[in-house]
Amino acid sequence: MIRERIALALQRGVYCGRKKVLRPDRVAELQRRAPAGEKKTQMARLFGISRETVYQYLRG
Q1: Contacts of residue 49, Cβ cutoff 8 Å, sequence gap at least 6
Q2: What is the spatial distance between Cα 48 and Cα 16, in angstroms, rounded to a whole number?
Q3: Among 48, 27, 30, 49, which Cα is nearest to 38's?
Q4: Which residues contact 54 (CB under 8 A, 6 or more apart)?
Q5: Burial level of 52, CB count in 10 A (0-12/13-18/19+)?
């Protein structure tokens, strides 16, 4: 029953997850700063996201 509801929601276009926090240009800046040796905690505070989100953007 749950799978049916998810399938119907996908067809309507309302089941798409949370919106991205950072714009693509900010993601590029984050990915440019990381190899330069900037601390992840410092970048998280600067961009207003959690440290785990920083790591997710760097992985993706």
Answers
A1: 21, 22
A2: 23
A3: 30
A4: 30, 34, 40, 43, 44, 47
A5: exposed
**CA dihedral sign, ordered 16, 17, 23, 26:** negative
pLDDT in tens, the chain (60 residues): 889 998 888 888 887 778 888 999 999 999 999 999 999 999 999 999 999 999 999 997
Q: Phi and psi of 14, rounded to 5°?
A: -110, 0
Is the separation of the CB atoms in 47 and 30 below 8 Å? yes
Would you call 24 exposed, middle or buried from its count of C-beta atoms within 10 A (0-12, 13-18, 19+)? exposed
Q: What pTM did the predictor assign?
A: 0.67
Q: Is 49 helix (H, G, I), strand (E, B) or coil?
A: coil
Structure-token pair, residue 30: 């984050």
